[in-house]
Protein 1
Amino acid sequence: MQNDFLWGVATSAFQLEGSPHADWASWDSILDSKPDVTNHYTLYKEDLCLLKELGVNSYRFSIEWSRIQPKENVWDDGAVAHYQDIIDILLESNIEPMVTIHHFTHPLWFIKKYPWHEDASIEKFSDFVEKIVSTIKGVKYWITFNEPYVLLLGGYLEGCMPPGIKDASLAVKALKNIFICHGMAYDKIHSRIPDAMVSVAHNMAALAPWKRWSPMDRLLAKIAKHFYNHSLLDAFLTGKMRIKFPFKSPIDVDLPIKGKLDFFGVNYYTRVHMRFNPFKKMGVELRHRDIDGYGLTDMGWEVHPYGLQKVLRYASRLNVPLIITENGIATRDDQRKIKFMKRHIDVLEKCIKDGIDVRGYFYWSLIDNYEWLQGLDARFGLYKVDFDTLKRKPTNAAAYYSYLIRSRSF
């Protein structure tokens, strides 16, 4: 194993801890009686011991904004100290921390008064970033935003995530403000930590036509591939985002992010098939089917390991190191989890041998947690959680991941 290859697991604060001050806490009734879904905020020291048990050398986690700033202009230094303690424990254990600044959730006051399509959101997020980078010590790897496109699609087009808006014009405004904030955060981090490694984590999917003989299905797959996988890469390369949709006004936005990327975080889970359906919104239907014979996950997603090779090749044109910041499967079947892991890491090994500069792999997730639109039923964890007793129990996949870390040499 390369000493500098990052083997890790990934989590997000809200999915483990909840927060009574977050927008999602009032959005989803699943959390009404369980603001701390795994009691991780209390049990974090025990959970961090699981990292040493696994043998990982890195851990990606997020800082919950609504705990740091529960009310506008009110800062909770105790919450800052809590996250600093996590970092200190990791460093003492020779585990590299990777901190995500924004992982979907916001303080409730922010989303009510300063949602992302409002220009005032930039200043408010800037204040949060300044608080974090001026007080948190010992972090080299930073993710500014996790899956910004998912945030925009869910929050501004489908309305299934806060702020629950369905307005394409506001989505474009929100997109611009979010990436202005990435550029700002990149500069703030580097002003204090010159050798910092800063990125976003971009959800990338393998995309294919439902019927290869259908011109409309092929066209939809081509458009989706450019929008979902490539347009963000182009924006980092050129500072411009250009997206064309049939019969729609093109998106044409200048973004202050050219070159503001030290590595690129790739979240990869599945392949999606595009089907033309005139009765659906914009004529698009997203479908999953089991073509490779590896089955669908408990969330109905296709298991398609070879798609990882495709998206890593796409991302490699950025000419920065790549890190797989999330990859995992929702299943209660340990053997399926093991096979998923092995197949994807086999693909990763091939990509590295083919010359793609991949520097790390983070499995999602350490323990079972709250999944945004599915609640507590999507079991991604290497450690099972009994949500009644909150006991953690290792899966066979945890032992297998430890074996892979010891045995693979990239």
Protein 2
Amino acid sequence: MITTKLHSLLLILILASSLFCCSPKEPVKIGFLGGVSGRVADLGIAGRNGALLAVEMRNRAGGINGRTIELLIEDDQQDAEQAKAAVQRLIDQKVEGIVGPMTSMVAMATVPIVNQASIVMLSPTVSTQDLSHIDDYFFRVISSTAEYAHKSADYQARQQGIRRVAAACDLRNAAYSESWLKEYRKALAAHGAEVVLTEPYYSGDDTNFAALAEKLLNVNPDAVLVIANSLDAAMLAQQVRKRDQHVHIATSEWAATERLSELGGNAVEGVMIAQFMDRDSNNPSFLAFRQAYLDRFSMEPGFGGVTAFDATNVLLTALAAKEKSQTLKQAILSQGVFIGVQSEIRFDKMGDAKRDTYMTTIHNGQFLRVH
């Protein structure tokens, strides 16, 4: 009787052990944080799609050490409090790292939370100077606002002869727009030019773009600068062009999604933008990525899709390569240089990145590299 019971117990243990050994490994969880709903969701949607494509491709290639990757998506709704709650949900689900957010305002609200939890947050598009040169858990795959603002100011002053600029600045993303404007002023002053008027406003459905255009043009500027999202930049450009067909119009890289030309039409023809994506690139990696993105989502990736794909791959590559004694932060910093779909991504010891930047314009509805 005892022998029979022992045999039965052994059989149960063997079966349990066999089932345990054959059960699938726990997935590697990573998070995505971005604004994927609301009036200016185009950037967040592109970012989500880029991250999702990177995960799907990595899973088809075997995942990470035989483990599949699970992407947990959170909508920050472009709201600081919603974003904080979303980040905490991702942390509670024990993600290894977070791709996002897509705007500086959300980053400023959520970086303290990831720092407290020692979780890497790797942004595709956040560029505020307020998060530069800090040893924390925030990383990004693009340069800071200084890079784009200086490139814009230098080109406009040297190539277009601009000396007087009137600027509209969206304070709903003040961490970005104020940082960008500060660097632009500095670069413009080096050429003997200046921002003669700044009109701050809060982006929303009730924004009066006609009145804003009137104020900007009243000072007779050589150029109107719009530091805002793609929707606002398109709407304001239309109002400016109704009143002045010749004044230069420029905007920042935040606005440079495909929606800018779709909504702005003829009003945004000739708009100048410094940005971190070359849509004319013949790089085989970029062409393969672009085709995969088009096949998967039936739309162009834009800069949000490109940089989110890059950011996700940086995270996944570091997770696959990191040693047991390393944290994810240490693994990223120890490698330092990662290959993006268009250019290298080079991290310094503070997690700030450098990548190639380009001066572009809109010609016949398409972004065209000019420098």
Protein 3
Amino acid sequence: MRTCHGSCHCGAVHYEADLAAGTVKCNCSVCTKMRFWAVQVPSSAFRLLAGENALSEYRFAAKRDVHCFCRHCGINVFSTGHSARLGAFHAVTVASLDDVPVEELLAAPVRYVDGRNDAWEVPPVEVRHL
């Protein structure tokens, strides 16, 4: 585990998170449209350093997960939720990470989840579009 930093495009939102290996992609309707690719960490491993007042949130369907966006530049910086696997979690978007080399992201394992069918521990049949 190591501490990595991330931010939105305009710099209003900054965070740090203690990341472990591995990423996640979901096929639910909002994640598919966002091309959501994230690293999930327990909420205790996430620290918002700046920009709490710059964040807007989007919730849909069951309204349990919160997708947090910078209201100035529109970047989805992280999402929050609760899972059987992690308990309370933050999912930092890979695209918002500032100090992780592209080669490391490409080498990281990807866990696919079937959010479209609310089957979070089962990968969807098709993942190429994610």
